[in-house]
Structure formats: structure tokens, C-alpha cells
């Protein structure tokens, strides 16, 4: 973990709500949320949510190609050695809190800000259905499809077909769902933010978005949102330089076992 990037757009949006000078003073004093990040679909989920909420945050890149996810300081925040994670210095009761797992972070930020995560129980249950569908289904299946299609040292037909078909099925589920609603749970929510990055990388998973017209429309609607554009524009130079064929990188990322 090195470097410290401050998202200027977000840090200027200190979000002092009108009507309370006191609130404004408190907010401007509180330290920003730290986002432990690498530019991947799981990382984008949280940068998108933070941008959508106008939250103040700093990006702390965790170079997962170099093994920074195993640094004790990071493991203290994210014991699963995976990004994303956050530290919110102004957590419950004003005390710092760390949160790992993208779904849990989205829910935390949704509860904290009151945005994109409805309070009404019926609406909230719908958001949670699609959020858990993403973290338990689309994410892992798309991750395996990507792995066997692009990273595996040998092309294993059975594995490629298994995960490519599963992503195809899941895209079909979203497409059907979106035929009758604008967003997965009706209104734009953390569930959409969770799935967006995986649809963005559709080609890598062997999918053609034009086969899924409603999903395609949903994707384009989200892609052009100003907050989404800002989140995707966050540059981490070291990430562009990663060579997945470099044996040192592969030794860090693949074949991990209990430590
Ligand atoms: N279930 C986790 C998955 C996170 C995940 O897989 N993160 C990847 C990047 S997309 C990672 O940190 N990989 C590091 C590694 O493989 O060591 C979540 O939703 O937050």
C-alpha cells in the first residue's frame, strides 16, 4: 500500500447541508473516508458509490499485483486480502470503523448517507436481493470466466464453457429483469452499482451486450452518469503497467493458499 491520492472532486464536495452552520463546520473538520482500492470491478463499486453520494474520500491504492494486499496494515482492515475496503474515521458514535467486502461497504455507505439504499422494507429487500445476487453469483462467475478465458496457463474447454455459459445465463436474468424496470430494484441503487463493472467487462467474459438489449440500455444509462464517469476516471498509474503474464505477478495472484 503506498501512495495517497485525494479525489479532488469528492474532496471539494464536502456536503455541508444547508441550514446548519454547525453541521457544516463538523463535516469540514472530519477526516475523509479512506478507500483501499485497485481499479477492478470490485473497486469501482465503491468509488462509484462514494462519488454518487458526494462523500469526501481519499484513494489508497493497494497494488494487488505486488502483494500489497498481504501487508499487515491492510490485513487489519481487510482480513480476506482483497480490495475494496474502507476506513471511515467518523463511523458509528463518531468512532472510526473499517469495513471490507464490497456488498457490506455499499450497505454501510447506503445506511450512513441515506442514499441509494431505501429504508422502506419492501424496497430494501429488493435492493438486497440483487446486491446478494451480484456478490454471490455474477461476481464469482464472471471472475472465474475471466480467469479461465484470459489468465489460465492452458485453455481448459470445460472450465471456459462452464463459466462463460453461467455469465451468459446471469446476463439473461438481468436482461429479463430490466425489460420491465429501469434498474434492477426499480430505482437506481447500490445493487446497480455492484453489477455495473462486470457488465462493463462483458467482452472479456465472452459476452456480446447487443444480445441483451435491456441490459445494454441499463449499462449505457449508468455509464453516462457524471458520478460514474468521475469514478472510472480515477487513475492508478501502476495498474496500467501490470503484466499478467509476468511470473512474479502470477506468483502473487494465483495459487494463493492459507498463510
Ligand atoms: N468478495 C469480495 C471480492 C473482492 C475481490 O475479489 N477483489 C480482488 C480484486 S477484484 C482482489 O483484491 N484480489 C487480490 C488477490 O487476488 O489477492 C468483494 O466483493 O469485496
3D structure, described in words:
- The structure is a single chain.
- The chain is α+β, with helices and mostly antiparallel strands and 259 residues long.
- The protein contains 12 helices and 5 strands.
- Helix 6 packs parallel to helix 8 (190-200).
- It starts with a strand and ends in a 6-residue tail after the last helix.
- Residues 40, 42, 64, 69, 81-84, 101-102, 135, 139, 253 line the site of glutathione.
Low-confidence stretches: 2-6, 8-25
Kindly report how far apart the N and C termini lie.
Answer: 19 Å
Q: List the total number of helices.
A: 12
Radius of gyration (CA) equals 19 Å
**How many beta-strand segments?**
5
Helix content class: 40-55%
**Helix/strand/pairing class, anyone?**
alpha+beta
Average pLDDT figure = 91
Bound molecules: glutathione
Shape: globular
Q: Specify the biggest β-sheet.
A: 5 strands, mixed
Q: Give the SSE string.
A: EHHEHEHEEHHHHHHHH
Q: How would you write the strand order of the largest sheet?
A: 1-3-2-4-5
Strand content: 5-15%
Question: Mind sketching the topology for me?
Answer:
Elements: E1 5-6, H1 8-12, H2 21-29, E2 33-37, H3 41-53, E3 57-61, H4 72-75, E4 85-88, E5 97-100, H5 102-113, H6 121-151, H7 157-178, H8 190-200, H9 213-223, H10 226-232, H11 237-240, H12 247-253
Parallel strand pairs: 2-3
Antiparallel strand pairs: 1-3, 2-4, 4-5
Helix pairs in contact: 3-5, 3-8, 3-10, 6-7, 6-8, 7-9, 8-9
Glutathione is lined by residues 40, 42, 64, 69, 81-84, 101-102, 135, 139, 253.
